[in-house]
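Dear H.,

Thanks for agreeing to be a second pair of eyes. The structure we're designing against is below in token form, covering all 200 positions.
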């Protein structure tokens, strides 16, 4: 997914430099704090005015689309692609949820995407579509083997992902050890019932 960077051809050297400084500042700010970072802070980090961001990128959505590949898309789509390459369904479920929750914890911008914070961004909505498709595929693949609880749906998986995004964005971030322990609880709760061991 290519970033929607405004054409650079014909720009003066200082204009090109400003554009790259803005992109670099936006990547750092968005990765560290999410896509809602005030543009004034991005402008300050880039050494330009807020008006320059609007002149070069048209505003927040244009800036997001210019850097979303580096900020979110590459890592998130890599998680989805690797998940699809895992043959064992149980392992596929464990990898997907563990890797996705790890990404949500490390990259606040992922939660802004999953919450569709900027629905006017076609690229963000495309990332959401890819995530929803991956959720559907995972649940459908798990049904024949009983890897997930029979009543568990793709809608349930979507809700768990969104609930986690809301908690991380608007709640108090838990210590990493607690967060990972809860990922283990989540996986145990949605997996299919295992037969009780034969104690004869």
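And this is the sequence the design step returned. I haven't edited it by hand at all.
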């Amino acid at each position: 997914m290519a970033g929607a960077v405004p054409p650079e051809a014909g720009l003066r050297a200082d204009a090109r430099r400003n554009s790259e400084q803005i992109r670099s500042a936006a990547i750092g700010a968005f990765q560290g704090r999410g896509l809602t970072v005030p543009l004034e802070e991005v402008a300050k980090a880039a050494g330009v005015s807020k008006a320059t961001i609007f002149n070069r990128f048209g505003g927040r959505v244009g800036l997001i689309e210019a850097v979303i590949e580096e900020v979110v898309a590459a890592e998130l789509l890599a998680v989805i692609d690797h998940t699809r390459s895992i043959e064992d369904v149980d392992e596929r479920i464990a990898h997907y949820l563990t890797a996705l929750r790890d990404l949500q914890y490390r990259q606040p911008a992922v939660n802004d995407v999953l919450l569709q914070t900027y629905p006017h961004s076609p690229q963000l909505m495309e990332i959401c579509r890819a995530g929803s498709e991956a959720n559907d595929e995972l649940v459908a693949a798990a049904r024949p083997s009983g890897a997930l609880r029979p009543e568990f749906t793709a809608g349930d998986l979507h809700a768990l992902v969104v609930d986690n995004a809301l908690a991380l964005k608007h709640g108090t971030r838990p210590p990493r050890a607690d967060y990972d322990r809860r990922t283990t609880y989540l996986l145990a709760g949605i997996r299919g019932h295992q037969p009780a061991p034969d104690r004869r």
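Two observations from my side: The mean pLDDT is 90. The CA atoms of residues 4 and 66 lie 5 Å apart.

Warmly,
E.
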